[in-house]
Amino acid sequence: MQLRSPIASFLARNPDGGMHHICYEVTDINAARDQLKAAGARVIGSGTPRIGAHGNLVLFLHPKDFFGTLIELEEVN
């Protein structure tokens, strides 16, 4: 059985492994997004934060802007 997920796809392209993504916790996800966009980072998708796996707002930044590593921002209080 072959799994279909973003991480499975990453591992198929990188059989030796590597860094899939890093999550940074931020207190204001919209302010962090705006600051990173102003510095040239690209947000994946609409740019509107959505509820992530832990029930908090998340969004992702394009890996090409971070040396091939997907960046996740997660809002925490």
Architecture overview:
- By secondary structure, the chain is of the alpha+beta class.
- The chain has a single domain (19-75), classed as Roll (2,3-Dihydroxybiphenyl 1,2-Dioxygenase, domain 1).
- Helices cover 23% and strands 25% of the residues.
- Strands 1-4-3-2 form a four-stranded mixed β-sheet, covered by helices on one side.
- Strand 3 and strand 4 form a beta hairpin.
- The chain is globular, with a radius of gyration of 13 Å.
- It starts with 5 loop residues before the first helix and ends with a strand.
Mean pLDDT: 88
| Count of discrete domains | 1
SS field, number of helical segments:
2
Structural class: alpha+beta
The CATH class is Alpha Beta
Key phrases:
77 residues; 2,3-Dihydroxybiphenyl 1,2-Dioxygenase, domain 1; 2 helices; alpha+beta
Task: Chart the SSEs and their pairings.
Layout: H1 6-13, E1 21-26, H2 29-38, E2 50-51, E3 57-61, E4 70-75
GO biological process, one term: L-methylmalonyl-CoA metabolic process
InterPro entries: Glyas_Bleomycin-R_OHBP_Dase, MMCE/EMCE_epimerase, VOC_core
Domain VOC: 1-76
What is the gist of this entry?
The protein is α+β, with helices and mostly antiparallel strands and 77 residues long. It has two helices and four strands. Strands 1-4-3-2 form a four-stranded mixed sheet, with helices on one face.
